Alpha amylase catalytic region
Amino acid sequence: MAIRKSPVSSPASSRLASRAASAQIDGSVPATTRVAVPAWAASDEQQSRVWAALSEQLGDDAQWPAFDARLRAHLGDLRRELAPLYGARPDFEAFLIKLLGNAFSAWRERSPELKALDQAREADPQWFHSNRMLGGVCYVDLFAGDLKGIEASIPYFKELGLTYLHLMPPFLCPEPHSDGGYAVSSYRAVKPSLGRIEDLRHLAQRLREEGISLVLDFVFNHTSDEHDWARGALAKDPFYSEFFYIFPDRTQPDAYERTVREIFPDEHPGAFSQLEDGRWVWTTFHSYQWDLNYGNPEVFNAMAGEMLFIANLGVEFLRMDAVAFIWKRLGTPCENLPEAHHLLRAYNALARIAAPSLLFKSEAIVHPDDVVKYIEPAECQISYNPLQMALLWNTLATREVNMLQKALEQRHHIPDGTAWVNYVRSHDDIGWTFADEDAIQMGIQGFDHRTFLNRFYVNRFAGSFARGVPFQDNPATGDCRISGTAASLCGLEQGDPHAVARLLLLYGVVLSSGGIPLIYLGDEIGALNDLHWADDPGHGGDSRWVHRPVRDLARSAQRDDPSTAPGRIYAGLRHLIALRQHLPSLAGGRLHAFWTRNRSVLGYLRSGEGQGGGGNILVLGNFSEHPQAIDAAVLLGMPAAAVDLIGQTAFNLRTGFTLAPYQMVWLDCRGG
Ligand code: GLC
Ligand code: GLC
């Protein structure tokens, strides 16, 4: 198969590439430059050469002025981030020119609607800090069969209140092994059973018309082994061989594995997989997911093209998959390296230039100190909050709010212009990613505590209400994570009387602690574990499929019936969502967690600095199956009378009161 293709597509950028090549040979500013170098670039010779070469070539195009304005604003950022990675190469300048030539081609292809959106979003960069923001996430096939089915589900998404819809990767992927779509064979084609790329573009537009932003993954750490690039590398094409980490024998893999942890040890030990021809390829995740080598600038360039293609489909947030792993260096854990941040910020600068309304969501399920390093306006504007997620489940198991409260006090604040995506469940496992240093301060020993949590959630602990399944149980390291739907982990599967209240309590925190709340679709009707997950082709061995059931239409039909568990969950959740839509202080604004003097009761105050102002909302949640008393002394600074917005009951804060098992209150203190 003839694999090699030039990533440069347009005639304009081909001209550029050849010009860049000649600029590199004589190393000087092209003699023919007829454009005056702008003041902003004059202080920096390389920057001015790059800009001059581009404007020389593209300046006559009607689309150039809008591109140029953004180029001027962000070229410095782009170059600053790429220089530490590739700046020492003699072809660095040519690389930049080629990259930006491709970016211009992508910009030119961007639809007028998206260009209008770009302008609107640039004028209101805080738009996503809104109490009306609500996310949902699902698999296209499991939720609705195909992309047209998703489009037909828009009324349901609106009924729920979604403004953000994350679809698991719908792109072409190997069958039956695709890691739920996270092994991408082409970023420009949709998996045939789901539809066509035009359906995706149409869906993005329809969603936008309905006020829902489409979110897709940017799976850029790896491709599937069926991607053209991987096929090229397998065929020993010299260009594509440099796209991956492929080694002739175990020498380098052994050297790397001394410091690299195993992510999917059930599937293959270590970080490498052996090819049929005996060579070894880096596969952090499954053996059919080959890690890309970003040490090679051609990889950056090629993936930039895919990123802008996806952006031009109408995607508004890109979930940056597996960000922690994208840069490798011998002798390090090959996770969270500084170069990973340079890469992300470079992609971000490129987005600001060629697809400005595109924002990034970080997926870093790592130590909390590392999670926050990805979150800033110039890198990822939003991020999963895996610490809050894990500690919500921790608190249900222990009935002690200490760790969650500390996290809210000390680790919740992130820079202005960024937001957490708070969630209860995702399509992935639950990993206990709290910081051992935080835990030990409370007398909690990290390893032992994780062992307890794993036993609790897989029902190997007396009295547990949870019905989870172990994921990647690794006896060698003692590491293990948890699979299972939120409802099954809350006790619904085993008929525990508090299951519904537990689930609503978790979502109550997610909906009141700021940022963008994200619902794993199915949770809103209490979807239970799929007990037959291992029978599906390609799923056996990956227990995460237990919490990826096909949408249960019969259950969904019960959502308006309060005599059923799905009905009670749905009504409870809808009630919280509707309340939040009227409470600006629950989105932006500050969160002040405090010690309620009751170890099972979480307390925080949301103060109204959010968009549109608002006042104080006092949130209290009882994480135990017993009634819990709140001492009036704890609430001394608060007004005497407050109304619980959830239960619509009046509270006298001067006398103290008792919360029912798993009760949450949102006390409206705005009047006082
Ligand atoms: C991310 C995805 C996960 C996938 C992995 C490899 O962590 O969330 O589902 O297995 O990346 O792409
Ligand atoms: C995926 C895996 C998870 C792993 C994470 C690392 O989300 O499912 O187990 O810890 O990647 O980013």
Notes: The two ends are 73 Å apart (CA to CA). The chain is about 40% helix and 15% strand. The longest helix spans residues 64-86. The pocket of alpha-D-glucopyranose (ligand 1) is lined by residues 179-180, 182, 219, 285, 321-322, 363, 427-428 (CB under 6 Å).
